[in-house]
Amino acid sequence: MPFELGLAVEHAMSRRAKHEWFVFEPLSNRLKKSLSDLDGTDPFVDEGDPDGVITELANALSRTRERPVLSELRTIFNGLRKKVEK
After folding, report:
1. Mean pLDDT, 10 residues at a time, the chain of 86 residues
2. Which domain holds residue 73?
3. Are residues 41 and 4 in the same domain?
4. How far is it, in rounded angstroms, from Cα 41 to Cα 14?
């Protein structure tokens, strides 16, 4: 996660185009341990399970114009899971 998050933050800071980034963690208050440079950032705590990730992803995207609803995110997740299980 540190590498990918670093890329997202760098992209957001170096471009004129607006780019938002989000931090997801399975446990509350673990950000200091994971990435001390992001202390002060409020992560979306997903409890480490797929439903938590889907819920927090919906929360993160709530500010977008065409935000997905939970059922759409669950459909995408189920499709991805089927592909991975093959």
Report:
1. 69 72 76 60 78 86 80 89 83
2. 49-86
3. yes
4. 19
Same domain, 53 and 27: no
Alpha-carbon distance of 50 to 52, in angstroms, equals 5
Report d(CA 34, CA 13) in Å as an integer: 21
Q: Is there a single domain that holds both residue 56 and residue 73?
A: yes
Q: Which residue has the tokens 């780019």?
A: 19
**Per-residue b/e over 30-45, b at no fewer than 16 CB within 10 Å?**
ebeebbeebeeeebbb
The span from the CA of 50 to the CA of 21, in Å, is 20
Cβ within 8 Å of residue 53, ≥6 positions away: 24, 46, 77
CA 70 to CA 83: how far, in whole Å?
A: 20
pLDDT in the model for residue 47: 82
Mark residue 41 as left, alpha or beta (left: phi above 0; alpha: psi -120 to 50; beta: remaining): beta
